[in-house]
Design goal:
The complex is a heterodimer of chains A (112) and B (116).
Chain A lengths: L3 E4 L2 E5 L4 E7 L3 E9 L6 E6 L5 E4 L2 E5 L5 E6 L8 E9 L7 E2 L3 E6 L1
Parallel strand pairs in A: 2-11
Antiparallel strand pairs in A: 1-3, 3-8, 4-5, 4-9, 6-7, 7-8, 9-10, 9-11
Chain B lengths: L4 E3 L2 E4 L5 E6 L6 E7 L6 E7 L2 E5 L7 E4 L6 E5 L8 E8 L10 E2 L3 E5 L1
Parallel strand pairs in B: 2-11
Antiparallel strand pairs in B: 1-3, 3-8, 4-5, 4-9, 5-6, 7-8, 9-10, 9-11
Classes of the chains: A mainly beta (112), B mainly beta (116).
Chain lengths: 112, 116
């Protein structure tokens, strides 16, 4: 079945440093979404990418979808303590089904 | 609308007992999803409904698990003969149409199940 892996599993940064998490799918995706889950909370939708090579920005967050539509990345510039949480990518397999398969997640900790 | 509501928030049950969880989605959302999440892992797909029709069910899902959405509104997830391995957070989410529309899932706060 479809597998979605993320690296790194954990990342500790100092406030103000940049952060990147990478997402790789075993199968081609029709689209990919990103979610943020705060400690003790539930996943919250951030964004969806659909087109090959697409880049979208939300303030300090930059999302990319790979040309082959099998990988994606999330980059945060100048992290803040409010960025703490686990970031999940979630992909919908091309050609079938409507379920999202979530990645393994990257847990971000930001230290002052 | 107060978002996706799940009840109960916590459930502790003895091994072998049956449990049922309820999810009330956002009223205008026609799709409803159940996921399971264990500590340090991403949400794992269980099943989803479009209106009252159950359109997909995980092949990994034991036949002890059953879900319904009788009138296309709220949904219930039942686990029969619970096992310790069923201990997890059970998340419900709803969405408009599908991800292709650009709408992400709205998750509820989940029901944390502990099987002792």
């Amino acid at each position: 079945g479809q597998q979605v892996m993320q690296i790194p599993q954990y990342q500790h940064v100092q406030e103000g440093e940049d952060f990147t998490t990478y997402c790789n799918s075993s199968t081609t995706l029709s689209n990919i979404q990103w979610y943020k889950q705060r400690p003790g909370g539930h996943p919250v939708f951030l964004i969806q990418l659909v087109k090959s090579g697409e880049v979208k920005k939300q303030k300090r967050l930059t999302f990319q979808f790979g040309e082959a539509k099998k990988n994606s990345s999330l980059h945060i510039t100048a992290t803040q303590t409010t960025d703490v949480g686990t970031y999940f990518c979630a992909g919908r397999a091309a050609g079938g089904g409507n379920k999202l398969t979530f990645g393994t997640g990257t847990q971000l900790k930001v230290e002052l | 609308d107060t978002g996706v509501s799940q009840n109960p928030r916590h459930k502790i049950t003895k091994r072998g007992q049956n449990v049922t969880f309820r999810c009330d989605p956002i009223s205008e959302h026609n799709r409803l999803y159940w996921y399971r999440q264990t500590l340090g892992q991403g949400p794992e797909f269980l099943t989803y409904f479009q209106n009252e029709a159950q359109l997909e069910k995980s092949r990994l899902l034991s036949d002890r698990f059953s879900a319904e959405r009788p009138k296309g509104s709220f949904s219930t997830l039942e686990i029969q003969r619970t096992e310790q391995g069923d201990s997890a957070m059970y998340l419900c989410a709803s969405s408009l149409a599908g991800p292709q529309t650009g709408y992400g899932y709205t998750f509820g706060s989940g029901t944390r199940l502990t099987v002792v």
